[in-house]
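INTERNAL AUDIT FORM
Audit reference: QA-55
Scope: verify that the stored structure record matches its stored sequence.
Auditor: D.O.
Record contents follow.
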Amino acid sequence: MAWLTKSRFMSGRQCAKRLWFEVNQPLTVELPPSVPMLQGRAFDALVQQLEPGIVISRERGMPAAIAATRRIMQAGGAPVIYQPAFRNGNLAVIADILRRRGARSELVEVKASTSVKAEHVPDAAFQTLVLRGAKQSVEAVFIGHVDNSFVLQRRGEYAGIKVEQEVTVEVEDRLPAIAAQALEFLAVMAAHQAPAVAMGAQCTSPYECPFIERCSSERGPAPEY
């Protein structure tokens, strides 16, 4: 069975039909990365330069990243690990930052936005659910985002561009609902046909769905007036 990853979980929250399509009938032509995605990758790379740590490659896919993370953790871990990957049953995630402060483990989800948005908390909560299921003691959760008051003084010196806002309380409150949703989405992914979902506001919020054209064609031609 396909794994429920972080991106698939967030797709399911937007629309169960989108999730089913992504797993069972994906697009035959890969779409180019969106502007927000490119901005996110660039900010991730910048953040990795601000604090020394081990960076786990995701280029060879999720299973390889999980295996690399396991080797590092079995060897005693590191104070800061970027892009660690964990699996708990059919749930799997690649986190942005796992940081250790003594016996305290912190999860940091990095976003290329200037504030914490509503969709960021369930994203971080799903990661917390998976990491705890994989026997990682996550005691604090943060959203790292761009400090909109940052001013570049010298070329290449970006210390201070990232700020972190703790969302541990919000994550803890949502974990039971997130766990229930994860089970629901696993059932959607395993279904023999796509769920019946009418087109609506979810097609463009919080992101534009890549299957809009497919769903539009299913509705048939528009009526004549």
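Auditor finding: record pair retrieved intact. The first helix runs from residue 6 to 14.
Action required: none
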